[in-house]
Design goal:
single chain, 586 residues, alpha+beta, TIM Barrel, Immunoglobulin-like, Jelly Rolls, eleven-stranded mixed sheet, eight-stranded antiparallel sheet, 32 strands, globular
């Protein structure tokens, strides 16, 4: 998760994690074999069976907050937590403080004490500055034995595998991980598997969806897909509670596109409490919003990063490891989430009425007069049984005809939207509302149609050096490593290259003053992994793509009373360079 403290160093990470879940845990120091056997026996007899823990926030086991964890368990009814992190070193494993598993004189007694206080534990491997064993060891038998040692040494049937950055795309390591999970399940029938993945509010990244597909292809059943609803880099004013809900709905639709048997009971939600690395804030009100959504829909698990941060402080750096950087009482977020512990019975509570979700891909199009565009309308069953969904639109201007093929689908199915633009339609941007109506209610999404004249779209608007043809970056202000390049370019002789590194994002900004309280559309051509185009300041919105070829992004926004906004191109840290060219405001 984010802000893991490994070997005393605070690190920010946007991670994905795989978790095998099941029974409770206890451990004594390995030097006391008799005590270790006694505690492992107690863990087995006191296990929660094979049920998924409904609330299991992360705890950094190496940053000296043992007292806060003890208080959360004994005074705030915390019943389970996730102990982070175990690191792979070749074909061996150590805790983040570099001491070996099963023989850590700091972490092992802390886990044992938590068990004696009535808490269960999930052991987490990987984290911001480390990797699980399958990523550091290529011998399958050693990987299996290493993970089995975690189960045996700590008396657990819940394991978490936390992987981030470029490691997500390591298909060979992922294959070893899936095989290990399959082998562990055969040897430990009570194991339940979950996967935690980074998301945007629009859902999983392509790499995340590929992980789900890899698990399915390997014959591994995932009980909980746990999404990290944090660090969207959508501006400091981002609504994090609603963002988590949007991400959950979109992710479930993607999950069901891989396996129609998934439901909300197979979904987990993990925000970062307080200040996030991107400067956004997950508040106590957001926590209540997410907990309510989980209860209403039977979400399988709630977690957060981290118990260590669930207290106030006066720090100034984003996401300090031992405080939330907001005004709160100690363990206020734990109190907000813990009531959900009893509502799921291991798999999430909530009602069973039928409901569905609806999404568009793409959600926008630029069409010349007399032309047409298409988009896919995807639906998914989010609770209860599949239902018939009728598709309609409102908001199309005179001369624009919108049709669906088919006009109704069974939730889980998709339809093709076609927008045909007449030759006399005035140029402009038109938001069209696409609505699905089923027995469970209605859901809508917005399709943004930009009509251009027969000669094409507008120019650069108020942006300066929007095509990067001046030979210099100015007036853009950029992070280190950003530059102009002659290849690849979309047009002309230059394009912008933004280069993130392993520890930070890359970004170029230009602040412009537009008409106050006026609607605009920002367009631009981008390529590269997780290339973002957006605005912040007087308006806050963005979109992104993940492509090795040029594709056009569009962002519609309305200025505030000042008319001032900052246009940005952004690359996600830990990924490769992103490129931008031919930006325009209109």
């Amino acid at each position: 998760m984010h802000l893991a403290r490994l070997g005393g160093l605070a690190v920010s990470a946007c991670a994905f994690a795989l978790a095998a879940t099941g029974a409770a845990v206890a451990l004594a120091p390995a030097s006391n074999a008799a005590a270790n056997n006694t505690l492992n026996s107690a863990a087995t007899s006191g296990a929660a069976g094979s049920s998924v823990y409904s609330v299991a926030p992360y705890v950094d086991m190496s940053n000296g907050q043992e007292g806060l964890l003890d208080t959360a368990i004994t005074g705030h009814h915390l019943k389970a937590y996730t102990a982070a992190f175990v690191l792979g070193e070749g074909c061996n494993q150590v805790w983040g403080d570099t001491l070996p598993i099963g023989n850590d004189s700091y972490t092992d007694p802390e886990i044992a004490r938590a068990k004696s206080e009535g808490a269960s534990v999930i052991i987490s491997s990987g984290g911001a500055s480390g990797l699980p064993l399958a990523w550091t060891c290529t011998t399958q038998s050693s990987i299996d034995a290493g993970y089995q040692a975690l189960i045996d040494d700590y008396g657990v049937t819940q394991l978490d595998f936390d992987v981030e950055g470029a490691a997500v795309a390591d298909t060979a390591a992922a294959a070893r991980q899936m095989q290990a999970m399959k082998d562990l399940k055969a040897a430990n029938p009570n194991l339940q598997f979950s996967i935690t993945l980074p998301v945007l509010t629009s859902g999983l990244t392509n790499d995340g969806v590929n992980i789900l597909k890899a698990a399915k292809n390997a014959g591994v059943k995932i009980d909980v897909v746990n999404i990290m609803t944090m660090d969207y880099y959508a501006g400091t004013g981002a609504e994090m509670g609603q963002g988590a809900i949007d991400a959950a709905k979109a992710t479930l639709a993607q999950m069901q596109s891989v396996d129609s048997g998934y439901g909300y009971a197979n979904l987990g939600i993990t925000p970062m409490i307080g200040k996030n690395d991107d400067g956004s804030t997950f508040t106590l009100a957001d926590a209540q919003t997410v907990e309510s959504f989980a209860a209403q829909n039977g979400v399988g698990r709630l977690a957060f990063w981290s118990v260590n941060r669930d207290q106030p402080c006066s720090g100034s750096a984003n996401s300090l490891p031992t405080c939330s950087e907001i005004s709160q009482s100690s363990l206020a977020f734990t109190d907000a989430f813990v009531p959900y512990e009893g509502s799921s019975g291991g798999g999430g509570g909530g009602g069973t009425s039928s409901d569905f979700s609806l999404s568009l891909s793409p959600g926008f199009a630029s069409v010349a007069q007399g032309g047409s565009a298409t988009a896919s309308v995807a639906t998914a069953t989010t609770s209860g049984s599949a239902e018939s969904v009728a598709l309609t639109t409102t908001g199309a201007p005179s001369g624009v005809t919108v049709s669906f093929s088919p006009a109704s689908v069974t939730s889980g199915g998709s339809s093709t939207l076609t927008a045909a633009v007449g030759s006399s339609v005035a140029a402009g941007t038109y938001p069209i509302t696409v609505t699905g109506t089923g027995t469970g209610g209605t859901h809508s999404a917005t399709y943004t149609l930009t009509v251009t004249g027969s000669g094409g779209g507008g120019g650069g608007g108020s942006l300066t050096n929007a095509g990067f043809e001046t030979g210099s970056l100015g007036p853009w202000t950029c992070t280190g490593g950003s530059t102009l390049v002659s290849t690849p370019v979309h047009s002309g002789g230059h394009a912008l290259q933004v280069t993130p590194d392993s520890g930070g994002t890359g970004e170029c900004d230009q602040t412009v003053t537009l008409s106050p309280n006026h609607s605009y559309t920002l367009t631009g051509w981008v390529q590269g992994p997780y290339a973002y185009l957006g605005v912040s300041g007087g308006a806050t919105t963005s979109t992104w793509s993940n492509s090795s070829s040029w594709n056009q992004l569009k962002v519609s926004f309305t200025t505030g009373s000042s008319g001032t906004v900052t246009v940005y191109v952004h690359g996600w840290y830990g990924q490769g360079s992103v490129y931008a060219d031919d930006l325009a405001l209109g």
